[in-house]
Write a structure and sequence with these properties.
elongated, 2 helices, Topo_IA_core_domain, about 25% strand, 2 strands, DNA topoisomerase domain protein, alpha+beta, EC 5.99.1.2
Length: about 100
């Protein structure tokens, strides 16, 4: 219990988490591809809860999982090493 109180008390003095987000839209053979990535620059208060965040991330859907992307410039040509088609269905919004 003391650990929980200590973490939340210290968290109020730490900065917010800052991230660099990359959102790339690529066109290949008339088809549109989209890639997203996120790199944490400043961990901030979330660093105190890193163990809890790892447990929460295990339950996330693959679609919302973001990973680091290389630095891209507008108009740059890229090589695509593969693609994957996933059969999914949309779900209704939460009430």
């Amino acid at each position: 219990m003391y650990q929980l109180i200590r973490q939340h008390y210290l968290a109020q003095f730490l900065p917010l988490q800052e991230s660099d987000i990359t959102d790339a839209t690529l066109t290949l053979g008339g088809q549109l591809f989209r890639a997203r990535g996120k790199v944490n620059v400043v961990t901030g208060w979330r660093g105190l809860f890193s163990g809890e965040a790892a447990e929460a991330a295990e339950g996330e859907d693959e679609q919302t999982t973001e990973m680091a992307l290389p630095v891209l410039e507008r108009g740059e040509h890229c090589r695509i090493s593969g693609s994957e088609l996933k059969d999914r269905m949309t779900s209704p919004p939460a009430p």
